[in-house]
Amino acid sequence: MLARRNRLTRGAEYKAVVRRGRRCAGAHTVTYVNRAVTDGPARFGFIVSRQVGGAVVRNTVRRRLKALCLDSLASVGAGDDIVIRALPSAASASFADLRSDVEKCLARRAR
C-alpha cells in the first residue's frame, strides 16, 4: 500500500500533472510525469474511469496499479508527481502486461 505521502490527494494536483506533465502512452495505460515539483517524495495518482468496467473491475485495476507503483517507487525521482490513467483494455490485461506498460513509461520519463 502506498503511504499517504506518496499519493496525490487533491483534484488540483491531478489537473496540474495531466496538463503540465510529460505523457507516455502504453497499450493499457497513459502515464503523465511532472518532474521534480517539490523536494519531497514521489507521489502517484490513479485515474480509472467507468469505461474500464464496473466498480469491482475498476478497484481491481487500481489495486494492481498501486502495487506496481509501490514496487517501482525506488526508481522514480524524488519530488516527481505521476498520474496513471487506465484505459478500458486494462480491465482484461494481466498483471505482467500492466507491469511492462508502467515500467516502460516510468523508465522513459526518468531520462
UniProtKB/TrEMBL annotation:
At the top of the EC hierarchy, this enzyme's class is: hydrolase
Keyword line = Endonuclease, Hydrolase, Nuclease, RNA-binding, tRNA processing
Is Signal tagged as a keyword?
no
Q: Which domain of life is it from?
A: Bacteria
What is one Pfam family matched by this protein? Ribonuclease_P
The UniProt family comment states: Belongs to the RnpA family.
Protein name per Swiss-Prot or TrEMBL: Ribonuclease P protein component
The taxonomic lineage of its organism, from the top, reads: Bacteria, Bacillati, Actinomycetota, Actinomycetes, Micrococcales
